[in-house]
Amino acid sequence: GAYVLQVKATDADDPTYGNSARVVYSILQGQPYFSIDPKTGVIRTALPNMDREVKEQYQVLIQAKDMGGQLGGLAGTTTVNITLTDVNDNPPRFPKSIFHLKVPESSHVGSAIGRIRAVDPDFGKNAEIEYNIVPGDGGNLFDITTDENTQEGVIKLKKPLDFETKKAYTFKVEASNLHLDHRFHSVGPFKDTATVKINVLDMDEPPVFSKPMYTMEVYEDTPVGTIIGAVTAQDLDAGSSSVRYFIDWKNDVDSYFTIDATEGTIATNELLDRESTAQYNFSIIASKVSNPLLTSKVNVIINVLDVNEFPPEISVPYETSVCENAKPGQVIQTVTAADKDLSPAGQRFSFRLSAEASNKPNFTVHDYRNNTAGIETRRNGYSRRQQELYFLPVVIEDSSYPVQSSTNTMTIRVCRCDSDGTILSCNVEAIFLPVGLSTGALIAILLCIVILLVIVVLYVALRRQKKKDTLMTSKEDIRDNVIHYDDEGGGEEDTQAFDIGALRNPKVIEDNKIRRDIKPDTLRFPRQRPPVEDNTDIRDFINQRLQENDVDPTAPPYDSLATYAYEGNGSVAESLSSIDSLTTEADQDYDYLSDWGPRFKILADMFGEEESYNPDKVT
After folding, report:
1. pLDDT of 463
2. Residue 233 above 90 pLDDT?
3. Domain 313-425: CATH class, spelled out
């Protein structure tokens, strides 16, 4: 009696004329599934619970016929195709109540270990099924999901299986419709339940280590062969087999340790140095004796513990300087320490002066107790002339066990500073080193300076030689004949040894008006000398010239006597020749000898007026 649809036919006859336009409906094909109201044309279902799963489509032939007229009843027909729409009115059903599965214990976690299926006769989304494991025996080890294509329940492994621990598992699985139709709740529960039994198959498995990772500790410098720990692996299969151990060699670092193949004990194979390597990380492999191909691996970490074997030292070489005008208590350098050992947390360094330096009044060490110390002055002022360098022994001690200490000698240089404490100069090294020049650059600079000095010396020497040659070779200088005459003469009678005419030539003498060897103070006109007779004796001529030069203090001694008494340009005492001396010794003042320094002290004592010379006091 459920309404399906309504059909309607029209008649072109006059409805007011008899029954010619009155239509009656009937079903010619489609019974007993459907019925039609003869007056209204409404089609309804004729059978209850029509099942789409039995028949989905129906073809109904309907006739419309008028009630009469002169020609009798006339009829028309039409075909109606009716398709049943599916509803979720069928629950899923398992084809059997128990499913048996066999699963190897070596199955991986997350892998599918079996499938079960429930049947739902509905179509489309009404046939979608959801599977769930009923809480119980296998809820923690297994999981089930739905395959969207086949609507099967896929059982997966959540945890590894172990035949030696448990050989079988039993649990229940429930299948239910994912989309429910509330109109059919009264029909009954739309779900079904089945039992799943899983048998675990024993497999030949590799050994299993007792820990997922091993961590060990050993002190550095531990003797070779010392056992520092052990690893353990077992064969958990029913027929237990022995296990062998060996190190997974990958690099040379692994050679620092060895392992006993039977016991699994790890020992040192070389001396360990924490300052070189603080931690070792390698793998150990365990294999079954019955089947060496079955192996397992575990990671081993060995931490090397530090032994206090190195004393602390000054962290960097300091270039310490102190001003000559330094005051007592002035900090001239802050020092820090470093230890080659890997210092533990809270490591403390202490600073102090060595025993032999504690009594000296120059410098002291102030320990700030924060792993730093200050070098302080202990006196008022320092002198570079008295001592340019000071060597300060500083003792540094650590707080580890056993206690280690070292004595570090600091070099302190005395420098000249201004009133603000800014260093002005220390020495050549202090000037050049801060610039950052390398040793090669310093050598090159010094070499250039030496070359320049050599060039200057050569230039001065050449100029002096040239000047001397000019004076000595001049033909206008009468002295030339005497200086360059190297042969011994034959006396007064020898008139052939040299040309005496140059000495007697008045013109040559008159032309020599100005001195050429030194700059004259004033320009003097030449003195008029009487002409020389040709028969004048040479001795008289020389004596005459000598007397003229003796009474003239500004004239140079051009004769041979003046040349031999020449003292040179570099003498502080100037010329000591008696030619230029005064007539009497009493007129000379010798007090200036006291200003010439200690080298002329004896001469000052000999010629001084206040104290007479005493030869016994001369050392």
Report:
1. 87
2. yes
3. mainly beta
Beta strand 265-268 pairing with 227-230: antiparallel
How far is residue 144's CA from residue 158's CA, in Å, rounded to a whole number?
10
pLDDT tens per residue, range 358-384: 888 899 999 999 999 999 999 898 988
Q: Is 436 exposed, middle or buried (0-12, 13-18, 19+ CB in 10 A)?
A: exposed
Give CA–CA dist 576/599, Å, rounded: 16
The DSSP element (H or E) to which 449 belongs, if any, is helix 439-473
| Tokens 């081993």, residue located | 300
> What pairing do the DSSP bridges indicate for beta strands 213-219 and 295-305?
parallel
Cis peptide before 615 (omega within 30 of 0): no
* Neighbour-count burial of 200, counting CB atoms closer than 10 A to its CB (0-12 exposed, 13-18 middle, 19+ buried): buried
Neighbours of 160 (CB within 10 A): 12
Kindly state the tokens that stand for 409: 């000698």
Strand order in the sheet with 34-36: 3-6, 42-45, 34-36
Q: Which pLDDT value is given to residue 544? A: 85
pLDDT at 88: 63
Q: Do domains 208-305 and 313-425 have the same CATH topology?
A: yes
Token digits of residue 609: 């007026």
> If pLDDT is split at 50, 70 and 90, which confidence band does 565 have?
very low
Cα four-point dihedral sign 254, 260, 264, 265: negative
Q: Residue 229 and residue 31: Cα distance in Å, rounded?
A: 92
Alpha carbons 191 and 134: distance in angstroms, whole number: 13
Long-range contacts of 576-579 (CB under 8 A, 24+ apart): 579/549, 579/550
Report how far apart, in Å, the C-alpha atoms of 89 and of each of 56, 57, 533 are: 15, 18, 175
Pairing of strands 279-288, 208-209: unpaired
Antiparallel, parallel or unpaired: β 279-288 and 320-323: unpaired
Sequence spans of domains, the chain: 3-83, 98-201, 208-305, 313-425
The three-state secondary structure class of 414 is strand
CA-based nearest residue to 91, from 203, 216, 164, 179? 179
pLDDT at 448: 94
Kindly indicate the confidence band of residue 433, based on its pLDDT and cuts at 50, 70 and 90.
very low
Q: To which CATH superfamily is domain 98-201 assigned?
A: Cadherins (2.60.40.60)
- Report whether CATH 2.60.40.60 matches the domain 208-305: yes
Q: Is the pLDDT of residue 406 over 80?
A: yes
Lowest mean pLDDT segment, chosen from 175-189, 412-426, 580-594: 580-594
| pLDDT, position 428 | 44
What is the architecture, at CATH level 2, of domain 3-83?
Sandwich (2.60)
Name 276's Cβ contacts closer than 8 Å, sequence gap at least 6.
none
Q: What is the pLDDT of residues 580-603, one digit of tens each?
A: 555 555 556 777 777 787 888 788
| 460-472 pLDDT per residue, tens | 999 888 776 665 5
